Amino acid sequence: MEDKNYKAIIEAILFTMGDSVELEKIANAIELDKKETKRLLDEMKEELNQSQRGVDIIELDGSYQMCTKQEMYEYLIKIAKQPTKRQLTDVLLETLSIIAYKQPVTKSEIEKIRGVSCDHAVNKLVEYNLVCELGRLDAPGRPLLFGTTEEFLRSFGVHSIDELPVLSSDQIEEFKAEAEAEMKVQLDI
Questions:
Q1: Are residues 47 and 119 in the same domain?
Q2: Are residues 64 and 126 in the same domain?
Q3: Which of 69, 95, 140, 173 gets the highest tally of CB atoms within 10 A of its CB?
Q4: Are residues 101 and 184 in the same domain?
């Protein structure tokens, strides 16, 4: 095998592992002796330095690791500081709307309405700061009560929960019919 093929394998190993990898393990993986493997790693380090790449290979007590060059940290920090775009799936939106209209509400009440577990959805909404714990219900087991946050109001452009659209009885019946039809289709499958 040519040196560049060995180098590609070493690069893949170091990139994938993330942490440092002992020279002996790398040598065993590419089926070369430690001296030849070290020569390849030294060449790779030099090539990375000469080509002005953003990554480097460092040696740590007989192990090697691929990492970002220190001069690139400021750019990584800029990316890390950018707000992440939240993805509100249909499940999250459905759960959020139940919480918004029924608050304060427990997970079991949400699950009763949705018909499925809501742990992940509620946890994700809490993580996005759209929902928060409001306290505990004075009932057996003292379940948590959830409600919307100020971030929810900001995100949806309303000043208060009272500004949420009110559904007419016709719309409610239409939604019920759609849900029943959807359930019938799912049961037939």
A1: no
A2: no
A3: 95
A4: yes
Q: What is the pTM assigned to this prediction?
A: 0.51
Last residue of a domain, one of 11, 40, 74: 74
Q: Where are the alpha helices (H) located in the chain, listed in sequence order?
A: 3-17, 23-30, 34-50, 73-81, 90-102, 107-114, 119-127, 150-156, 169-188
One domain, residues 50 and 104: no
Nearest to 108 by CA among 152, 148, 146: 146
Instruction: Provide the β-strand partners of residue 31.
Output: none
Q: How much is the pLDDT for 18?
A: 84
Q: What does the pLDDT read at residue 108?
A: 92
* Closest to 64 (Cα-Cα) out of 4, 6, 24, 35: 24
Residue 30 forms part of a structural domain: yes
Q: pLDDT of 37-48, one tens digit each?
A: 999 999 999 998
pLDDT 10s digits, 103-119: 999 999 999 988 888 99
Same domain assignment for residues 132 and 68: no
Nearest to 41 by CA among 6, 68, 2, 1: 6
Q: Which residue, 48, 74, 100, sits at the end of a domain? A: 74
